[in-house]
């Protein structure tokens, strides 16, 4: 893994909202392994509720 593989400021996989360190809202993360390269994906609470709840 190199520095380009690390998300310093994660974005929501669905809506693209940026998760800032000062945000109090909890986000969800999942390791996606169904693509050619595994990656950690993030979802804001609103998109997670809409897509997975």
Rounded Rg: 12 Å
The largest pleated sheet is described as: 2 strands, antiparallel
- Compute the average pLDDT: 82
Strand order of the largest sheet: 1-2
Distance between the termini: 32 Å
Number of strand segments: 2
Q: Looking at the chains present, what oligomeric state does this protein adopt? A: single chain
Regions with pLDDT < 50 over 5+ consecutive residues?
Answer: none
Structural class computed from helices and strand pairing: alpha+beta
State the helical fraction.
10-25%
Task: Give the ordered list of helices and strands.
Answer: EEH
Global morphology: globular
Q: Hey, roughly how much beta strand do the residues contain?
A: 15-25%
Count up the helices. Answer: 1
Task: Describe what you observe in this structure.
The model has no long low-confidence stretch (mean pLDDT 82). Strands 1-2 form a two-stranded antiparallel ribbon. The protein has one helix at 45-52, and strands spanning 28-32, 39-43. The protein starts with 27 loop residues before the first strand and ends with a helix. The longest helix has 8 residues, at 45-52. It contains one helix and two strands, in the order ββα. The protein has a domain at 10-19 and 26-52. It is of the alpha+beta class.
What is this entry, summarized?
The chain is of the alpha+beta class. It has one helix at 45-52, and strands at residues 28-32, 39-43. Strands 1-2 form a two-stranded antiparallel sheet.
